[in-house]
Write a structure and sequence with these properties.
Blueprint (H helix, E strand, L loop, with lengths): L6 H4 L25 H13 L16 H4 L5 H16 L10 E7 L3 E8 L8 E8 L4 E6 L11
Antiparallel strand pairs: 1-2, 2-3, 3-4
């Protein structure tokens, strides 16, 4: 077994930076994810990837882009939260029923939401912050463990 605890549950992947590019060590080698970080990156990629675009896995991805750029209505908020919850729960390492999603900001220009969940065998919740600048149609999904998650104007 490798030195990474729980590699069989978590697997490994090429570590990606915030722009989705491979992280490279000073010696030129690719940096790999280990443990929980692999799971967080997998969920981030699932949410960011448009459902059906991967020819080798048509079921991977999400439809969050269908909702982020819509008008802020109760129906759109409910649909967005349901989509995020369903896609995060598709990861077999996520504890069923542990996913919580909240919209923090949704106006003509900005969108911000947070999703949290628990992984099996991990005793603390993890979360991601989704932020979209609608004026340039840019979505950023980042690790939310160090973010201010206070709701703003809806």
């Amino acid at each position: 077994m490798s030195s990474a605890k729980g590699t069989d549950l978590w697997g490994q992947d090429i570590a990606l930076d915030s722009s989705g590019q491979a992280r490279v060590a000073a010696n030129g080698e690719l940096i790999l994810t280990e443990g929980v970080e692999t799971g967080v990156q997998d969920i981030r990629l699932r949410l960011f990837t448009r459902l059906g675009v991967l020819f080798y896995d048509r079921d991977f991805g999400s439809l969050i882009f269908d909702w982020i750029y819509e008008e802020n209505t109760a129906t759109a908020r409910t649909a967005f939260i349901a989509e995020v919850t369903m896609r995060v729960e598709e990861d077999p390492r996520v504890v069923p029923g542990s996913v919580k999603c909240s919209v923090l900001r949704w106006n003509e220009r900005l969108f911000e939401a947070v999703v949290s969940w628990r992984f099996v065998d991990v005793d603390h919740p993890l979360n991601l912050v989704l932020q979209a600048d609608k004026t340039v149609k840019e979505l950023v999904i980042k690790d939310g463990r160090h973010e201010d998650l206070t709701p703003a104007d809806l």
